[in-house]
Design a protein that fits this description.
Elements (H helix, E strand, L loop, with lengths): L4 H16 L4 H5 L2 E10 L5 E4 L1 H14 L6 E11 L5 E11 L2 E16 L2 E14 L1
Parallel strand pairs: 1-6
Antiparallel strand pairs: 1-2, 3-4, 4-5, 5-6
């Protein structure tokens, strides 16, 4: 049976999320496009925009911040689909554990990926960071 684009994307998301929990910023950054566009809305009603280089720095900072605290990100899918441009779109909640305990952090992610040289790469990300669990 032929694997569909959606099946391929779902398989990639498993690897992507394993990378997210790897505490390895280079591994995580390898999943993003050089053309990445990111927008984060934080609890203080400040919106930040950045691209590939700033996202790489963000992963470095995040992993350093939680080094030695056994961080774990937990994912709750809302939607995983392929759009008309044959891009993979994932809408999901992210919860977070540190030191084995659930934090009150709860973020809503909308991420879009496209194939670049036959590999899925994140091209857009939007995050709402004003929720608590």
């Amino acid at each position: 049976m032929e694997e569909t684009l959606l099946d391929d994307f779902k398989e990639f998301l498993e690897e992507y999320r394993t990378s997210w929990n790897s505490e390895n910023p280079e591994r995580m950054s390898a999943h993003q496009s050089k053309d990445l566009e990111v927008r984060w809305a934080n609890p203080e009603e400040i919106v930040s925009d950045w691209g590939d280089e700033e996202a790489k720095q963000g992963w470095n900072q995040a992993y350093k911040q939680y080094q030695g605290r056994n961080p774990e990100w937990l994912f709750e899918d809302v939607l995983i689909e392929i759009n008309k441009q044959k891009e993979g779109v994932a809408v999901f909640w992210v919860g977070f554990k540190a030191d084995g305990k659930m934090t009150n952090a709860k973020l809503l992610f909308i991420e879009t990926f496209r194939k670049e040289n036959s590999k899925w790469k994140k091209i857009r990300e939007y995050v709402e960071n004003s929720f608590a669990s």
